[in-house]
Amino acid sequence: MPGLVIVGAQWGDEGKGKVTDLLAEKADLIVRFQGGNNAGHTIVRDGEEFKFHLIPSGILYAGKTCAIGNGVVLDPRILLEEIDGLRRRGVDVSNLKISANAHLIMPYHVLLDTAGELKLGKLSLGTTRRGIGPCYADKALRLGIRVQDLLDEKILRTKIRTALEPKQQALRELSVQRRKLRKEAGEGDREAAGQAIGSSPDPRLDLHTMTEEHLSYGHRLEPHIADTARLCWDALDAGRTAIFEGAQATLLDLDHGTYPFVTSSNPIAGAATIGAGIGPADIDEVWGVAKAYATRVGAGPFPTELTDGAGRHMLERGHEYGTTTGRERRCGWIDLVALRYAVRINGMSALAITKLDVLSGIGSLKVAVRYRSREGALLDRFPYHQSILHGAEPEYEELPGFDAEIGDCREPSDLPGEARAFLDYVAKFVDVPVRVVGVGPGREQVVWLD
Ligand code: IMP
After folding, report:
1. How far is Cα 420 from Cα 300, in angstroms, rounded to an integer?
2. For the chain, how are helix, strand and coil distributed in percent, rounded to 5?
3. pLDDT digits (tens, 9 = 90+) for 68-95
4. Residue 209 CA to ligand 1 centre (angstroms)
C-alpha cells in the first residue's frame, strides 16, 4: 500500500486521527492534504491524551516524517502552539515538514469568518469561525499569503498590505451594521460580535504589527518549511508507504457535500492529489472512516438525526462534543444511503468503523437503507438536489442490538454475534469490506477483521 488515502465518510469527527495513527505504524510519511484548524482529533496513547488540529497524527511515532501539505490552510499561531505543546511533553517534532505553498490563515480571516456568520444570523452555516472560508477565498482570489512569504520581509509586507485593504473595507462596512448585529446576536455571540466588528481599529489589523508578528512566526517555522510534494515523490518512488490524511469529511466537501452547509475545501480522496502534489495513479488504497452511528456539527441536512433517548445515549456515551469548538454534536443512526455515496465518490477500498462500543445497551440498531421524499418517492441513492435532501425521511432496517461491553474485545470472535451481524450488514450494503473496528477510545481498543 505505498499510497494510502484516509478520508471521513460522513460529516466529520469519525475518528480519522485514530485510524491514521494505527496505520501510521507501517508508514514512512504522513501528509495532511486539506482543511485547517477547523479539524481536531484526539489520540489516546498509554492513557495519555493528545489533541491535534493541524499536525498529522503520525507525529507520535519517532522517526516518521509528518507533512502539512500545500492544500492545508494554516494559522501559524495555532501551529506553533501545537508544536510547543508537543515539545513540552517530550515529543520530537523535528520530522514535521510544512509545505512552502500552504496558505496562511491571517487574523483578518478569523474576524471575517465570525462577522460573516453573525451577519447571516439565522441562516448562518455554523462554521468553526477559524477563518477557513475567507482564507480559501483569498487563495482563489490570488490574494493569499503563503508559508514561503514568511521568509521575505518585503514580499510579506507588500502582500499583507494588498490583502488587508479590502478586508478593512469589508469590516468597516460590517461595523456600520454593528449595533444591529449586536442586538441580533445571541448572548454568547455578543463578545465575538464586538471583537469581529468593534468600532476602534483592531490592533490585530495593523499592517506593521501583523508583519512583525508573522516574520517572527517565519523565523520559528523556518526549519520545518520544505517542498513537501517532493518528499511524497521520493517516498513513493522508493516504494515506501505514504498516508494522505484528510480532514472533515465527504458530506462536508465543497463540491460534493451538502452545499452550502460544507467546509471550503475538498475532503474527498481525489483532493489528495492536489493538496499533496501527487498523481491519481499514486493512490493505491482509499480507506473511509465512519462511526457506527452518525454525527454532524453546524447547520445543514442530516436525515437520520435523532432527538430522542437513543440520540441522547449516543451524545453522552460517545462524548459527542467538538474537539475544536466544544459544541454539542447532532447525533443519529448510521445512514447507509449516504455511506454508499461516500464509498463511490471516494473510490473506497476499505472501511474503518469506529465507536461501535457506543451502541452497546441502546436497544435494537437501526440503519437507514433508503429515503422517502416529501412527495412519497422512494430514493435508494443520495439525492443531488438540496431541496429533496432537506425533505428526505429515512427508512430503516432494524437489527438486533447488544448489551455486552465490548471495550476489551480484540478478536472478531470476541464481539457479540449481533455486533458482527451489524458490521456484516454495513459492509454488504455498501459493498466494501470493514477492515478495522473501534471499540473504545484507547489506541489498543480495536478489532482487526479479515
Ligand atoms: P468551517 O470549515 O469552519 O468553515 O465550517 C463549515 C462547516 O463544516 C460547519 O458546519 C462546521 O461545523 C463543519 N466542520 C468544519 N470542520 C469540521 C470538523 O473537523 N468536524 C466536523 N465538522 C466540521
Report:
1. 32
2. 40, 20, 35
3. 999 999 999 999 999 999 999 999 999 9
4. 30
Q: Is 90 left (phi over 0), alpha (psi -120 to 50) or beta?
A: left
**Cell output for 7:** 478520508
Our answer on whether the CB atom of 110 is closer than 6 Å to any ligand 1 atom is no
Residue nearest to ligand 1 atom 21, measured at CA: 12
Cβ–Cβ under 8 Å, residues 426 and 353: yes
- Supply the DSSP symbol for 357: G
Element (H, E) at 295: strand 293-296
- Evaluate whether 354 touches 19 at the Cβ level (below 8 Å): yes
Task: Please choose, from the candidates 151, 298, 295, the residue with its C-alpha nearest in 3D space to the C-alpha of residue 223.
Answer: 151
User: 76: cis peptide before it, omega within 30°?
Assistant: no
- Residue 85 CB neighbours (<10 A): 15
**Segment 340-392, tens digit of pLDDT:** 999 999 999 999 999 999 999 999 999 999 999 999 999 999 999 999 999 99
Q: CA–CA separation, 103 vs 132, rounded Å?
A: 10
Which of 252, 261, 323, 328 most suits a substitution to test ligand 1, by most atoms within 8 Å of the C-beta? 252
Nearest CA to ligand 1 atom 1: 127
CB 105 within 8 A of CB 74: yes
Model pTM? 0.93
Say yes or no: CB of residue 13 within 6 Å of ligand 1. yes
pLDDT for res 172: 80
Burial of 396 (0-12, 13-18, 19+ CB in 10 A): middle
Amino acid at residue number 411: E
User: Does the pLDDT value for residue 253 go beyond 90?
Assistant: yes
Atom number, ligand 1, closest to the C-alpha of residue 128: 3
Question: Which of 150, 109, 128 has the alpha carbon at shortest distance from 39?
Answer: 128
Annotated active-site positions, please?
A: 13, 41
How many A from CA of 298 to the centre of ligand 1? 7
Closest CA to 38 of 131, 109, 120, 135: 131
C-alpha 78 to ligand 1 mean position (Å): 17
Indicate the top mutation candidate among 132, 138, 297, 320 to test ligand 1's pocket, ranked by most ligand atoms within 8 A of CB. 297
Q: What are phi and psi of 171, to 5 degrees?
A: -70, -30
Check pocket membership of 39 for ligand 1, CB cut-off 6 A.
yes
Least Cα distance to 248 among 54, 8, 71 occurs for: 8
